[in-house]
């Protein structure tokens, strides 16, 4: 950092040093040495000289110093100064004593002259010599073209790297928000926020808000679902319908009584996996075959409780790779879950289940006929003979595809031998499901449930099916097998 030798003030740059010398230690109103013009400051005078009295341009940046009068260069500032004294000394001679003309002394040497512009050029020589002596002489006083190009390229690469990192960080945060991993709260926070929004829009009275809030807090405290999104009796209504209005259906197989649960204000947009687990569990609790496995569960758990149950399965050692993707934490988040999390939870409860991966279409136009055939074989080992409506002890099937999950509760075999799945969708609200409970329900109501082969065209489907209990030894074996998770792939 340059230091003024007259007053000791530190300046940041050499141009600031020059301005300081002129303004603090030289005349206040410099005059043009070539005409009568005077200026309030040196910057204005310099602009005047450059425009009205142009001189040979300065040496290129980093080059040797030049004579301010004729442009001749020298190896050093002192050599140029000697040249100026010998060739242009008449311009530097001080005036005779007593004539009243102001003298200007160089703050960096013993030079005295009567012209401010000449002194400025002289001071520039001192500063230029100092800068020139610090330049790397090996490359002629400046960076070589190759080094400069490399430096510019490195700076550009660094900037591109920062932009890429910023873009990747933004995309990752977007995915975190999409899949509920952005630390924005979970079921409770979303419920309160959406209820407050309903009040603000006039769709909910303040009294109802406080009642529902109290009910929710009680439900969460006990870890039990409040039942406000549940519709019961749909399977029984379907049995009655098929017995009376069979029409073009040859046979139909239905799961043990399944309650329908739909998404609420607290899990809308992300809770389908948890709601499908509630549907599956509602059927298992009605089946005496699973009493021993589910002896600690008497009521349907709420979503935060299910999240804690999955975390407990991870702590036991199930699916460590899947757990790491969620940072071993679900409770208090809006994280989506899929077939692997459902499998881990069921197996931790000693329920015998399997994941089947229909990883690619097996029919025309992107359809999955193999999926329908597998579901039919799951429900029926003997399709010939018997009643037309079969209420089986089989639990429903959890079905996952990209972005959503649903529950298969039965299957139709049509008279033309085509197959149609019967599916509970957690995205279907209660008032629509309750239409199926009416005695006057018809084929129009069944459209909510029916899915033909041409209706399921996602690229991939995964299902989780329960079929019996596990012994403690079998549970340990499956926990070990889940260290590297694999599924049965069809085809």
Account of the protein in words:
The structure is a single chain. By secondary structure, the chain is of the alpha+beta class. The protein is built from 16 helices and 13 strands. The protein has helices at residues 14-25, 42-52, 77-87, 116-134, 145-178, 187-200, 206-222, 234-244, 272-284, 303-316, 320-325, 339-348, 369-379, 430-433, 443-446, 472-481; strands spanning 104-105, 112-113, 230-231, 249-254, 260-261, 351-358, 389-391, 397-401, 404-414, 419-424, 450-452, 461-469, 488-489. A hairpin with a 2-residue loop joins strand 8 and strand 9. Helix 6 runs antiparallel to helix 7. Residues 56-61 and 134-141 have low confidence and may be disordered.
Keywords summarizing the entry:
single chain, about 500 residues, alpha+beta, nine-stranded mixed beta sheet, two-stranded antiparallel ribbon, 16 helices, 13 strands, about 40% helix, elongated
Task: Give a short overview.
With 491 residues, this protein is α+β, with helices and mostly antiparallel strands.
């Amino acid at each position: 950092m340059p230091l003024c030798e007259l007053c000791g003030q530190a300046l940041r740059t050499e141009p600031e040093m020059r301005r300081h010398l002129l303004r603090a230690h030289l005349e206040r109103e410099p005059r043009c040495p070539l005409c009568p013009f005077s200026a309030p400051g040196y910057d204005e005078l310099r602009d005047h000289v450059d425009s009205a009295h142009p001189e040979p341009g300065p040496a290129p940046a980093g080059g040797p110093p030049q004579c301010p009068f004729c442009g001749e260069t020298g190896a050093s500032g002192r050599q140029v100064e000697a040249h100026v004294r010998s060739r242009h000394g008449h311009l530097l001679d001080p005036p005779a004593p007593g004539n009243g003309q102001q003298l200007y002394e160089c703050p960096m040497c013993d030079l005295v002259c009567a012209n401010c512009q000449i002194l400025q050029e002289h001071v520039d020589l001192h500063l230029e010599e100092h800068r020139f002596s610090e330049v790397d002489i090996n490359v002629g006083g400046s960076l070589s073209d190759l080094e400069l190009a490399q430096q510019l390229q490195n700076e550009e690469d660094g900037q591109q790297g920062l932009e890429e990192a910023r873009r990747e960080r933004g995309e990752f945060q977007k995915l975190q928000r999409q899949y509920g991993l952005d630390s924005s709260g979970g079921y409770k926070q979303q419920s309160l926020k959406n209820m407050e929004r309903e009040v603000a829009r006039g769709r909910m009275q303040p009294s109802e808000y406080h009642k529902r809030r109290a009910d929710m807090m009680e439900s969460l405290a006990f870890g039990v679902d409040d039942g406000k999104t549940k519709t019961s009796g749909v399977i029984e209504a379907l049995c009655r319908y098929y017995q009376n209005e069979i029409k073009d259906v040859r046979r139909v197989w239905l799961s043990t009584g399944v309650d329908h649960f739909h998404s609420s204000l607290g899990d809308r947009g992300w809770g389908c996996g948890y709601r499908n687990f509630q549907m599956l569990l509602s059927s298992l609790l009605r089946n005496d075959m699973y009493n021993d496995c589910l002896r600690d569960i008497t009521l349907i758990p709420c979503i935060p409780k299910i999240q804690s149950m999955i975390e407990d399965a991870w702590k036991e050692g199930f699916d460590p790779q899947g757990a790491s993707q969620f940072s071993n934490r679900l409770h208090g988040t809006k994280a989506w879950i899929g077939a692997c999390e459902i499998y881990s939870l069921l197996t931790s409860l000693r329920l015998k289940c399997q994941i089947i991966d229909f990883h690619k279409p097996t029919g025309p136009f992107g359809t999955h006929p193999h999926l329908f055939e597998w579901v039919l074989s799951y429900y029926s080992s003997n399709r010939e003979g018997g009643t037309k409506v079969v209420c089986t002890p089989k639990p429903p099937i959890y079905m996952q595809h990209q972005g959503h999950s649903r529950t298969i509760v039965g299957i139709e075999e049509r008279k033309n031998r085509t197959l149609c799945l019967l599916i509970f969708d957690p995205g279907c609200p209660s008032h629509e499901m309750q239409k199926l409970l009416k005695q006057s329900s018809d084929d129009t109501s069944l459209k909510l449930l029916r899915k033909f082969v041409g209706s399921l065209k996602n690229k991939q489907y995964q299902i989780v099916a329960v079929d019996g209990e596990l012994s403690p030894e079998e549970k340990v074996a499956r926990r070990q097998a889940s260290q590297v998770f694999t599924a049965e792939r069809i085809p």
